[in-house]
Amino acid sequence: MVSQGPEPQLPYEIGKGYLTAEDAKIEAIIAPYREPLQKSMAETLCFSDASATKELPEGSLGSLITDILRNEMSLQSNSSIDICFLNHGGLRVEWPKGAITRSMVFELMPFENQLQVIQMNTTQVEGMLKLIAAKGGSPISGIRMEIENGQLKSWSVNGDPKKEKTLYNVLTSDYLVNGGDSYLLKHEGELKVIPENLKVRSGIEAAITRIHQEGKTLKPAKDGRIQKVTTP
To answer: Superfamily for 43-221?
Structure first.
Protein backbone atom coordinates (compact mmCIF):
# COMPACT_ATOMS: atom_id res chain seq x y z
CA MET A 1 0.00 0.00 0.00
CA VAL A 2 1.31 3.42 -0.88
CA SER A 3 1.15 5.95 1.91
CA GLN A 4 -0.53 9.16 0.89
CA GLY A 5 1.04 11.25 3.66
CA PRO A 6 -0.77 13.85 5.75
CA GLU A 7 -3.67 15.79 4.40
CA PRO A 8 -2.66 19.20 3.01
CA GLN A 9 -3.21 22.01 5.48
CA LEU A 10 -5.23 25.02 4.41
CA PRO A 11 -4.07 28.48 5.50
CA TYR A 12 -5.44 29.32 8.91
CA GLU A 13 -7.26 32.63 9.23
CA ILE A 14 -7.33 34.24 12.64
CA GLY A 15 -10.86 34.41 14.00
CA LYS A 16 -12.25 31.92 11.48
CA GLY A 17 -11.11 28.62 12.94
CA TYR A 18 -11.65 26.52 16.02
CA LEU A 19 -8.94 28.35 18.00
CA THR A 20 -10.83 31.61 18.38
CA ALA A 21 -10.18 31.76 22.13
CA GLU A 22 -6.45 31.39 21.55
CA ASP A 23 -6.68 33.94 18.73
CA ALA A 24 -8.07 36.50 21.14
CA LYS A 25 -5.21 35.88 23.58
CA ILE A 26 -2.62 36.28 20.84
CA GLU A 27 -4.32 39.41 19.56
CA ALA A 28 -4.24 40.89 23.06
CA ILE A 29 -0.48 40.33 23.20
CA ILE A 30 0.19 41.76 19.73
CA ALA A 31 -2.14 44.79 19.81
CA PRO A 32 -0.02 47.05 22.06
CA TYR A 33 2.93 46.60 19.69
CA ARG A 34 1.01 46.70 16.40
CA GLU A 35 -0.68 50.04 16.91
CA PRO A 36 2.43 52.16 17.61
CA LEU A 37 4.29 50.32 14.86
CA GLN A 38 1.56 51.07 12.34
CA LYS A 39 1.57 54.71 13.44
CA SER A 40 5.33 54.91 13.05
CA MET A 41 5.29 53.27 9.61
CA ALA A 42 2.59 55.67 8.41
CA GLU A 43 4.56 58.78 9.45
CA THR A 44 5.41 61.11 6.56
CA LEU A 45 9.14 61.79 6.48
CA CYS A 46 9.36 63.95 3.38
CA PHE A 47 7.55 64.97 0.19
CA SER A 48 8.61 64.32 -3.40
CA ASP A 49 7.96 66.68 -6.31
CA ALA A 50 7.81 63.76 -8.77
CA SER A 51 7.77 59.99 -8.90
CA ALA A 52 11.17 58.28 -8.61
CA THR A 53 11.57 55.34 -10.99
CA LYS A 54 13.98 52.48 -11.60
CA GLU A 55 15.64 52.42 -15.01
CA LEU A 56 18.92 51.45 -16.64
CA PRO A 57 21.46 52.79 -17.30
CA GLU A 58 20.21 55.57 -15.00
CA GLY A 59 16.96 55.93 -13.09
CA SER A 60 15.66 58.92 -11.18
CA LEU A 61 15.25 56.73 -8.07
CA GLY A 62 18.85 55.48 -8.04
CA SER A 63 20.25 58.95 -8.73
CA LEU A 64 18.12 60.45 -5.96
CA ILE A 65 19.01 57.85 -3.33
CA THR A 66 22.76 57.85 -4.02
CA ASP A 67 22.84 61.67 -4.08
CA ILE A 68 21.05 62.10 -0.76
CA LEU A 69 23.07 59.31 0.89
CA ARG A 70 26.37 60.84 -0.27
CA ASN A 71 25.33 64.24 1.07
CA GLU A 72 23.98 62.88 4.37
CA MET A 73 27.03 60.75 5.14
CA SER A 74 29.36 63.60 4.23
CA LEU A 75 27.54 65.71 6.82
CA GLN A 76 27.44 63.00 9.48
CA SER A 77 31.10 62.10 9.06
CA ASN A 78 32.33 65.66 8.51
CA SER A 79 34.30 64.19 5.62
CA SER A 80 34.04 64.38 1.86
CA ILE A 81 32.38 61.38 0.20
CA ASP A 82 33.42 61.37 -3.46
CA ILE A 83 31.23 58.53 -4.78
CA CYS A 84 28.14 56.65 -3.65
CA PHE A 85 27.35 53.35 -5.33
CA LEU A 86 24.47 50.90 -4.84
CA ASN A 87 23.24 48.01 -6.96
CA HIS A 88 20.16 48.31 -9.17
CA GLY A 89 18.42 45.28 -7.66
CA GLY A 90 18.97 46.50 -4.11
CA LEU A 91 16.34 49.22 -4.46
CA ARG A 92 13.17 47.15 -4.37
CA VAL A 93 10.33 49.58 -5.09
CA GLU A 94 9.75 52.91 -6.78
CA TRP A 95 8.57 56.00 -4.93
CA PRO A 96 5.48 58.02 -5.88
CA LYS A 97 5.02 61.74 -6.13
CA GLY A 98 3.81 63.20 -2.84
CA ALA A 99 4.25 61.95 0.72
CA ILE A 100 7.10 59.53 1.44
CA THR A 101 6.40 57.51 4.58
CA ARG A 102 8.67 55.44 6.78
CA SER A 103 7.03 52.27 5.45
CA MET A 104 8.13 53.28 1.93
CA VAL A 105 11.73 53.47 3.14
CA PHE A 106 11.44 49.92 4.52
CA GLU A 107 9.84 48.72 1.27
CA LEU A 108 12.61 50.37 -0.74
CA MET A 109 15.40 48.83 1.34
CA PRO A 110 14.07 45.84 3.31
CA PHE A 111 17.54 44.37 3.84
CA GLU A 112 19.81 44.77 6.86
CA ASN A 113 22.78 45.89 4.76
CA GLN A 114 25.12 48.36 6.42
CA LEU A 115 26.78 51.44 4.99
CA GLN A 116 30.54 51.36 4.54
CA VAL A 117 33.03 53.90 3.27
CA ILE A 118 36.08 52.49 1.54
CA GLN A 119 39.05 54.13 -0.14
CA MET A 120 39.60 53.18 -3.77
CA ASN A 121 42.41 54.21 -6.05
CA THR A 122 41.87 55.13 -9.70
CA THR A 123 42.42 51.59 -10.95
CA GLN A 124 39.96 50.18 -8.40
CA VAL A 125 37.29 52.77 -9.24
CA GLU A 126 37.71 52.00 -12.92
CA GLY A 127 37.33 48.29 -12.18
CA MET A 128 34.07 49.00 -10.34
CA LEU A 129 32.79 51.11 -13.24
CA LYS A 130 33.65 48.35 -15.72
CA LEU A 131 31.43 45.98 -13.72
CA ILE A 132 28.64 48.59 -13.73
CA ALA A 133 29.04 49.04 -17.50
CA ALA A 134 28.81 45.28 -18.05
CA LYS A 135 25.53 45.22 -16.08
CA GLY A 136 24.12 48.11 -18.13
CA GLY A 137 24.23 50.72 -15.36
CA SER A 138 23.55 51.13 -11.65
CA PRO A 139 22.65 53.79 -9.06
CA ILE A 140 25.70 55.99 -8.58
CA SER A 141 26.51 59.53 -7.43
CA GLY A 142 29.61 61.64 -8.00
CA ILE A 143 30.43 59.84 -11.26
CA ARG A 144 29.74 60.63 -14.88
CA MET A 145 30.41 57.78 -17.27
CA GLU A 146 29.79 56.55 -20.80
CA ILE A 147 29.03 52.95 -21.75
CA GLU A 148 29.50 51.53 -25.23
CA ASN A 149 28.35 47.95 -25.95
CA GLY A 150 28.66 46.99 -22.28
CA GLN A 151 32.16 48.45 -22.03
CA LEU A 152 33.34 51.48 -20.06
CA LYS A 153 34.19 54.21 -22.55
CA SER A 154 34.99 57.20 -20.32
CA TRP A 155 34.49 58.47 -16.78
CA SER A 156 35.13 61.35 -14.41
CA VAL A 157 34.57 62.03 -10.70
CA ASN A 158 32.60 65.15 -9.84
CA GLY A 159 33.48 66.63 -13.21
CA ASP A 160 37.23 66.20 -12.76
CA PRO A 161 39.27 63.89 -15.00
CA LYS A 162 40.63 60.80 -13.25
CA LYS A 163 43.93 61.26 -11.46
CA GLU A 164 46.30 58.33 -11.26
CA LYS A 165 47.44 58.89 -7.65
CA THR A 166 44.13 59.96 -6.14
CA LEU A 167 42.31 57.95 -3.48
CA TYR A 168 38.52 58.31 -3.56
CA ASN A 169 36.16 57.88 -0.61
CA VAL A 170 33.40 55.55 -1.82
CA LEU A 171 30.16 55.06 0.11
CA THR A 172 28.49 51.72 -0.52
CA SER A 173 27.07 48.71 1.36
CA ASP A 174 28.81 45.83 3.07
CA TYR A 175 26.84 43.56 0.73
CA LEU A 176 28.68 44.94 -2.31
CA VAL A 177 32.06 45.18 -0.60
CA ASN A 178 31.77 41.47 0.21
CA GLY A 179 30.94 40.44 -3.34
CA GLY A 180 27.16 40.64 -3.47
CA ASP A 181 25.49 40.84 -6.91
CA SER A 182 28.79 39.64 -8.45
CA TYR A 183 30.62 42.72 -7.19
CA LEU A 184 33.79 42.39 -5.13
CA LEU A 185 35.04 45.91 -4.65
CA LYS A 186 38.81 46.09 -4.36
CA HIS A 187 39.88 48.86 -2.04
CA GLU A 188 42.72 50.25 0.03
CA GLY A 189 40.94 49.95 3.35
CA GLU A 190 37.72 50.67 5.22
CA LEU A 191 37.23 54.12 6.72
CA LYS A 192 35.52 54.49 10.11
CA VAL A 193 33.89 57.80 9.27
CA ILE A 194 30.19 57.01 9.73
CA PRO A 195 28.28 55.74 12.77
CA GLU A 196 29.13 52.12 13.38
CA ASN A 197 26.66 49.58 11.99
CA LEU A 198 24.47 52.22 10.33
CA LYS A 199 22.09 50.48 7.95
CA VAL A 200 21.55 51.73 4.39
CA ARG A 201 17.87 52.09 5.25
CA SER A 202 18.68 54.23 8.31
CA GLY A 203 20.93 56.44 6.21
CA ILE A 204 18.13 57.02 3.70
CA GLU A 205 15.66 57.84 6.47
CA ALA A 206 18.11 60.29 8.06
CA ALA A 207 18.71 61.96 4.70
CA ILE A 208 15.07 62.54 3.78
CA THR A 209 14.20 63.59 7.33
CA ARG A 210 16.92 66.25 7.19
CA ILE A 211 15.65 67.45 3.80
CA HIS A 212 12.13 67.80 5.20
CA GLN A 213 13.34 69.60 8.34
CA GLU A 214 15.15 72.09 6.12
CA GLY A 215 11.83 72.87 4.41
CA LYS A 216 12.86 71.21 1.16
CA THR A 217 11.35 68.46 -0.99
CA LEU A 218 12.81 65.55 -2.94
CA LYS A 219 13.41 66.33 -6.60
CA PRO A 220 14.05 63.03 -8.39
CA ALA A 221 15.42 63.43 -11.91
CA LYS A 222 17.88 61.95 -14.37
CA ASP A 223 20.84 64.14 -15.29
CA GLY A 224 22.70 61.95 -17.78
CA ARG A 225 25.36 60.79 -15.33
CA ILE A 226 25.40 57.40 -17.09
CA GLN A 227 25.01 57.45 -20.86
CA LYS A 228 25.02 54.73 -23.46
CA VAL A 229 26.82 55.84 -26.60
CA THR A 230 27.06 54.33 -30.04
CA THR A 231 30.04 54.87 -32.31
CA PRO A 232 29.06 55.06 -36.01
So the answer is: 5'-Nucleotidase, C-terminal domain (3.90.780.10)
